[in-house]
Amino acid sequence: MLLPAFGPKPIAALEPFTRDLCRQLLKETAGQATFDAAVEFAQHIPVRVIVQMLGFPQEDADIFRHFIRQVLEDVDQSPEERQELINQGEIDAYMDNQIAEHVANPRDDLTSFLVQAEIDGNKLAPEHIRGTMVLLMIAGIDTTWSAIGASLWHLARHPGDRRRLSAEPALMDTAVEEFLRAYAPVTMARLVAQDFDFHGQQLKEGDWLLLPFPSANRDPAAFTDPDTVQLDRDHNRHAAFGLGIHRCLGSNLARMELRVALQEWMAVYPEFELADPSAVTWSSGQVRGPRTLPLRIL
Fold first, then answer.
1. What domains are defined for the chain?
2. Residue whose C-alpha is closest to residue 49's, from 178, 141, 139, 183
3. What does the pLDDT average to over 273-283?
């Protein structure tokens, strides 16, 4: 049902908004010798693009940024502690108000698309619409800002790649795929269906398994010199978006956001480095990416 809304054409229509957003964020950092590229740049892009897609007010973007971080990163706390942090009722109420407003005033956005959608001739229930919107936010925000941050982290640490990408902007598409391969942000969970022995490890029915996509992307049987980032890698069937029937719905959107973010960054800041490598911090949980990324502009 959602595939048409995430096809190449509707995602291309979002590119001007995304580009203007990146330029505005970079304008706000002008004149700073050092700043946190994760906090001041990467983390704002996907949440504000999703908010734009859904037709929500841009000033509400931070509500969802904090919510998503709590959902995905506070995984080492007890269920009771997490429930206290995650104000699900507030999010649900906000979504319900937006759904009601879009029912009363339809427009050309993803919320109206969901309100008008049908499955087997039936409209979606409000809780189905709300759940879909929450899922899109969980799946599309933290993952993409992590990919943007990890790509900037790589370029800050590898001046040869940074200068090559600056000198050869036509490499951007293959560079994006290589960053996705090398720094795939997602680790998916699956349940063991039945007891079995996996190379001497006893797995029991009902156990949780985490499947790290980045590990598959470093498979020497699938990739030549897999631990080296090659900006012009031409054979790159990576698993950053999953494979098969569970492939990521939002891959077109994530690629566009990552490409535009890097293009706009490199246009303004072609030379930069880590201001303090020890100050870089990374997320925990199922999504991996820089949470603090202090960079020095050269």
1. 3-185+250-297 (1.10.630.10)
2. 141
3. 96
